[in-house]
Design a protein that fits this description.
Low-confidence stretches: 1-13, 175-182, 302-351
CATH architecture of the largest domain: 3-Layer(aba) Sandwich
CATH topology of the largest domain: Rossmann fold
Strand order of the largest sheet: 1-11-12-10-13-14
Number of helices: 7
Structural class: alpha/beta
Order of helices and strands: EEEHEEEEEEEHEEHEHEHHH
Radius of gyration: 26 Å
Distance between the termini: 18 Å
Helix content: 10-25%
Largest sheet: 6 strands, mixed
CATH class of the largest domain: Alpha Beta
Length: about 350
């Protein structure tokens, strides 16, 4: 419930946040040696930022992911100067970072209508080329979506992130009792009665050593960078990845999660964050919660971590607001998370 009205929920499902495409500029047109005519230049390939476009849609419409511009017109008796080939324009989402196959930054597209040239057409046949046309530029381009959601759910495997997303939106992530059921971000959106929206991403679970690229650490941490705000989801009973790893309490889990983010990129210290404590229906959960609250409020226990800087006061405030930002189950989670009046006043309201 939101302001006495029912929130409208949308299912966005599994999505694609990066894509590699093949681009080729058009071949130039043939020149006319006898008359000295020049062939037309080949068309160019452009990336154009457009609203309501997704990388998933691009892949669906163009499964081969090949984009080739038109060839330039040949020189002829009736038209000594051949016409330029048709440009190829590829519609891409806003917030795209474009890099070449060798990692070189080509540019970014942040506003609707912005364009980036990714493959130039070859010149037409002329005196310099012995009237033979040149082929267009060819390259593999990597499209990387910089921002995927307003809120990212961060936690270790089996913390309950997917269950939470399934309750606050119509997204249907895979839910199971084994680790790493989420390998790609799952996106859900909440639309409020005033038509404002909040997008929520269920991010793949992290493990200890993710900052050092253990497992698929950097690939998973990359998704954390792409959200405006973070919601840490922690199992109140603690976490243990396998029989070969050490058991971690809920407090140690919070410390490890924030430490992994800080060691990966210090800039993540400034990203607004909240904490959700899950599985409060387990035995002795309330005692564990009381202990966690004491530890979080003890500067000696929680020093040198993300939430213990200037963000600590409102971080703890959210753990003590009415109904509690400590989510005591899926129903409470959905109710609290969908009420925008509980978003931090220092954080920009979702749009």
């Amino acid at each position: 419930m939101v302001w006495g009205s029912r929130a409208l929920l949308r299912k966005y499902g599994n999505f694609i946040d990066d894509l590699r495409i093949y681009v080729k500029g058009g071949t130039g047109g043939m020149g006319h040696p006898r008359l000295g005519g020049e062939g037309g230049r080949g068309g160019d390939v452009w990336l154009v930022a457009k609203e309501k476009t997704t990388l998933k849609r691009i892949k669906g419409r163009f499964p081969q992911k090949r984009f080739v511009a038109g060839a330039g017109a040949n020189s002829s008796v009736s038209a000594l100067k051949g016409e330029k080939g048709t440009d190829c324009e590829v519609d891409v989402p806003l917030g795209i970072s474009v890099t070449s196959c060798d990692g070189k930054q080509i540019g970014e597209l942040n506003k609707a209508g912005e364009r980036i040239l990714v493959a130039r057409g070859g010149i037409g046949g002329c005196l310099v080329t012995n009237f033979l046309p040149l082929k267009g530029q060819i390259q593999i381009v990597h499209l990387d979506l910089k921002l995927i959601a307003d809120v990212g759910l961060v936690g270790f495997p089996n913390a309950g992130k997917s269950s939470l997303l399934s309750r606050v939106s119509h997204a249907k992530p895979q839910i199971a009792d084994y680790p790493f059921t989420t390998l790609k971000p799952e996106l859900g959106k909440i639309m409020y009665p005033d038509y404002k929206q909040v997008s929520v991403a269920d991010l793949p679970g992290l493990i200890e050593g993710a900052h050092a690229n253990k497992g698929m650490g950097h690939k998973f941490l990359k998704h954390v960078e792409r959200t405006k705000q973070l919601l840490f989801v922690v199992d109140i009973s603690g976490f243990r990845l396998s029989s070969k790893t050490r058991f971690r309490t809920a407090f140690e889990t919070v410390l490890l999660l924030t430490q992994e983010l800080e060691l990966y990129k210090e800039d993540l210290r400034t990203k607004p964050a909240l904490l959700a404590v899950n599985k409060m229906d387990l035995p002795n959960a309330q005692d564990s919660l009381n202990e966690l609250m004491k530890q979080l409020q003890n500067p000696q226990d929680s020093r040198a971590h993300l939430f213990c800087s200037q963000e600590l006061p409102w971080f703890l405030l959210y753990l003590n607001i009415p109904f509690g930002s400590v989510f005591c189950g899926p129903t409470w989670a959905a109710r609290m998370f969908m009420q925008r009046q509980y978003w931090p006043s220092s954080v920009e309201q979702p749009r």
